[in-house]
Design a protein that fits this description.
Number of domains: 3
Radius of gyration: 22 Å
Helix content: under 10%
CATH superfamily of the largest domain: Cupredoxins -  blue copper proteins
Strand order of the largest sheet: 13-12-11-15-20-17-18
Strand content: 35-45%
Number of strands: 31
CATH architecture of the largest domain: Sandwich
CATH class of the largest domain: Mainly Beta
Bound molecules: CU-O-CU linkage, copper (II) ion
CATH topology of the largest domain: Immunoglobulin-like
Structural class: mainly beta
Shape: globular
Length: 498
């Protein structure tokens, strides 16, 4: 395989520096026809594998999780070795009401350190899973915090620097749902009509276990897999009734962005983004969902007939060098039961007010393009890719405080990918923001971005501004690209709320 030979050749830092850094490297990849993601084509199956329905546990009672190796089935008829927080891949879905205190004990039965970040939850500094917090193999940590935020679809995953990509890819992740009274008043679909869908691509060895072995090109573009799993089921189907369903969509892939649509043309009615319900329902035909982002959508299947079949799929999009060049099916829905639907999709959802830019006391700009200029000092040694990706010219240093902000103040942060050729989903811990503007690329705030967010997709050519008021929650938090190979190779900084 040409790729292997090439990597052997480029495997030393000296060679890499000698030939002029990333520009040469990218040129070389192109010459050899290795267009990154294009070398990993999605494999489509028969969609005869029943969708794994994740168990739901009530966060009001103490929870015990163990990060460990499990055997399960991702591909029908095959046993896979994966990681999970209970006895399967992923974790049970945690559901809590706003105001509740949750206590989650994590026992680490991995052979390496881990920790947990509660992505989307505003928790004290020492509970947030900063990479400096390490749970050693064989030991445990008790996470305890009180929920003080709106109804929302959040998630959790390991966050140990340079191990995050590996541990998430092998199966450590879960969904964390917050409910509140404002949401309850909408009487949204519940029970079997509310389905968490965790979308992830996996690279799988022939023995069924998950392969995580990134080479330079994988670190450049992010690690992709050819098997698209939903809740840990590849080529899955789900039987539905002629009802309105609430789908809680989470992209927990390391790097892959999906341009979601339904193959029968049915629209998505977006009711929530990362941080909670939107002010009003946004009806769209397709949705770009990048790693780390969540979407809460209502889909109306009530006019379908029994026997109808359709797919959740991903369509082509303009995603720069490594993404969007393929259309593929993700999972199948089979209509198996005709029932009468009495619920109708609400228009007004929750109180939501845009933060006025007149409140902002400061604008901070971060170059996230990671073009050749930003890469000159890069070390391409195969064993140490710790500074391949940067934010504002800096790569992650656990102890350095890169930005300091004051609790209670409002700021605008700008992620500038104008000169970039790759996309970057930018995520902030410790705060919820609103998307304030987008110039270049798509040139506009998307309908599904009109609510509270913690992760925003910055396409090549785009400059995206976000606005936020920092909570009274002092401490050191990270912000980073949620392409986990980018984050693990340095695209993460610290900021401190004082
Ligand atoms: Cu889900 Cu720091 O990330
Ligand atoms: Cu987070
Ligand atoms: Cu990135």
């Amino acid at each position: 395989m040409r790729r292997r030979n090439f990597l052997k050749l480029s495997g030393s830092a000296t060679l890499f520096t000698l030939y002029g850094g990333i520009g040469w490297f990218l040129e070389s990849c192109k010459k050899k026809g290795m267009d990154m993601a294009k070398s990993i084509s999605v494999v489509t199956g028969n969609f005869d594998n029943p969708l794994r329905i994740l168990p739901i546990i009530n966060g009001a009672s103490p929870i015990n999780f163990t990060s460990k190796r499990n055997n399960t089935s991702l591909i029908k008829g095959k046993t896979s070795t994966v990681l999970g927080y209970a006895d399967d891949i992923l974790a049970p879905v945690i559901r809590v009401n706003n105001g509740q205190t949750v206590s989650i004990n994590l026992q680490n039965e991995l052979e390496e350190i881990t920790n947990v970040h509660w992505h989307g939850l505003i928790v004290p500094e020492n509970m947030d899973g900063h990479p400096q917090n390490k749970i050693a193999p064989g030991s445990s940590f008790n996470f305890k915090f009180t929920i003080n935020q709106k109804a929302s679809t959040n998630w959790f995953h390991p966050h140990s620097h340079m191990l995050t990509g590996k541990q998430v890819f092998k199966g450590l992740a879960g969904m964390f749902i917050v409910n509140d009274a404002e949401e309850a008043a909408l009487n949204l679909p519940t029970g079997e009509f509310e389905i968490p869908l965790i979308i992830q691509d996996k690279r799988i060895y022939s023995d069924g276990s998950i392969n995580y072995s990134p080479e330079s090109m994988d670190v450049m573009s992010g690690y992709f897999g050819q098997y698209i799993c939903v809740n840990g089921s590849w080529s899955a189907y789900h039987n539905i009734q002629t009802k309105i369903y609430r789908l809680r969509l989470l992209n927990a892939s390391n790097a892959r962005v999906y341009n979601l649509s339904l193959s029968n043309g049915i629209n998505f009615n977006v009711i929530g983004s990362d941080g909670g319900l939107l002010g009003s329902t946004q009806t769209v035909n397709n949705l770009l969902l990048s790693p780390g982002e969540r979407l809460d959508v209502l889909v109306n299947f009530s006019s379908l007939s029994v026997g109808a079949e359709f797919y959740l799929q991903s369509n082509l999009f303009n995603g720069g060098e490594s993404q969007g060049s393929e259309t593929f099916k993700i999972m199948k829905f089979n209509v198996t039961q005709k029932v009468t639907e009495t619920f109708s999709i609400p228009t007004a959802l929750a109180t939501f007010s845009p933060i006025s830019s007149s409140l902002s006391i400061k604008t901070r700009t971060f170059d996230i393009a990671n073009n050749s200029g930003a890469h000159t000092a890069m070390n391409m040694n195969m064993g140490s890719m710790s500074s391949m990706h940067k934010i504002g010219g800096k790569s992650f240093n656990m102890d350095r405080i890169d930005e300091t902000v004051n609790a209670g103040t409002t700021e605008v942060w700008e992620f500038d990918n104008s000169n970039g050729t790759d996309l970057h989903p930018m995520h902030l811990h410790g705060v919820h923001f609103q998307v304030y503007s987008r110039v270049g690329g798509r040139g506009a705030i998307q309908p599904h971005e009109t609510g509270w967010k913690d992760t925003v997709l910055c396409m090549p050519g785009e400059k995206v501004q976000i606005i936020m008021t920092f909570p009274n929650n002092p401490g050191k938090f990270v912000f980073h690209c949620h392409n986990l190979e980018h984050a693990d190779s340095g695209m993460m900084l610290n900021y401190k709320i004082i």
